[in-house]
Amino acid sequence: MNLTPLASNKTELTIEKDGYELKVLFSYKTPVAYIKTWKDGGMIVRKTNKKWSNTTTRHINSWIPTNHLAVDQSELDTLLNEVK
């Protein structure tokens, strides 16, 4: 597990598990997007569909690749429970 500050109130958490890597973007203390990459090259990219502040929107847009789906904030809120 690696926690990397990217900017003021913008942090990336990286978790490596068997077969995949999960990167979660936090804006302030809230998970707002993630990228899950499998060792075979597959990838899932998701961002919250909740409208947060303009700053959080900039954090997401500068971090996430172009091709992504918006998901309910509850998926991001429970994401880290799944990788314990």
- The span between the termini is 11 Å
Describe the strand arrangement of the main beta sheet, using strand numbers: 1-2-3-4-5-6
Q: Assign a percent range to the helix content.
A: 10-25%
Question: Which class of secondary structure composition applies to the elements?
Answer: alpha+beta
Q: Gyration radius, to the nearest Å?
A: 12 Å
Number of domains: 1
Number of helices: 2
* SS strand fraction: over 45%
Largest sheet, strands/sense/barrel: 6 strands, mixed
Mean pLDDT: 93
Shape: globular
- Which stretches are poorly predicted, pLDDT < 50 over at least 5 residues? none
Number of strands: 6
Order of helices and strands: EEEEEHEH
Please supply descriptive tags for the structure shown above:
about 80 residues, alpha+beta, six-stranded mixed β-sheet, globular
Describe what you observe in this structure.
With 84 residues, the protein is an alpha+beta fold. The protein has one domain. Helices cover 24% and strands 48% of the residues. The protein contains two helices and six strands; from the N terminus they run βββββαβα. The chain has helices at residues 54-63, 73-82; strands at residues 2-7, 10-17, 20-27, 30-38, 43-48, 69-71. The longest helix has 10 residues, at 54-63. The radius of gyration is 12 Å and the shape is globular. The termini are close together.
